[in-house]
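To: structure desk
From: M.T.
Subject: fold request, one chain
Message: Could you run this one when you get a chance? Sequence is below, nothing fancy, just the single chain.
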Amino acid sequence: MRYSCRATGTVTDFRRIVWAARMRLSAMKPNHIVWHAFRKPCGAWSRHVPRTLLKPRMPRTRPVIPGSSWQNRRVIPWLRPDTPFPPLEAALSEPNGLLAASADLTPRRLLDAYERGIFPWYSGDQPVLWWSPDPRMVLFVDDFRIARSLRKRLKQRRLEIRVDTAFRSVIEACANARRRGQNGTWITPAVIDAYVALHEQGNAHSVEAWREGRLVGGLYGVAIGRMFFGESMFADEPDASKIALVHLAGMLRERGYPLIDCQQETAHLASFGARLISRLEFAHRVATLVHSNQPDSPWATAMSQPPVP
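Reply: Done. Structure tokens follow.
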């Protein structure tokens, strides 16, 4: 999801995607933002990335954009608090899925975004960037796979699984988790406060792995209707986050949730059965599921040890 969608995608990777973006807030008054993109290799893949924000007027000198031109520049909208999201098909192809930018990250804005298949992702010195990539990685609960070695660990039941007992601790642990090549986190205090507010409203949830009273792994995400949007995970013990994910899948199956949004493609999630679908198909599925009736029982009363899928 940022399970790895963004969880295994490190901040260093993200800063390469949205590379050294210099956001001039004084230029935020216009309704649109001009993103000057250039190509920079990022490991196994490359993306056009935003470099700076300019007021929508012709500069004195044209920017140098390999493979592009000033006349072909792409524009994304700046969202005021009462501005709706643009249609998903308006998202940029490079960087893949960049749709809009805003200053607000409120629970209302977050719920509106998830209901449309949009998620936030940005670094602390940037405005909130909203994304809807194409294709989209998802995990159908009925297709969930468990490796033989992980299944053995599950049968040992060395970890206690809890639901929604330490949401803030889980998201803070995700923010502080050290990952190879990472020198920061996209989960800023503002992000934490926004998702904690969603949790208090009953829309964000955590699945936690505990050992002897100590939180050693877990994940969190957003649930609307019968759709679950994965956000991030962490593990202070080997396989702790994987075990939390297995229990999440089992719990979602029992509660009638057919789909987990993983946001971006990773080999880690593919090993559990996640696969890519088109943005159009994803949007259709989300539109149906988020308006489905939620289960009557609260998340906190979910089985602590659901059957392994």
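Reply (cont.): The first helix runs from residue 11 to 17. Let me know if you need anything else for the meeting.
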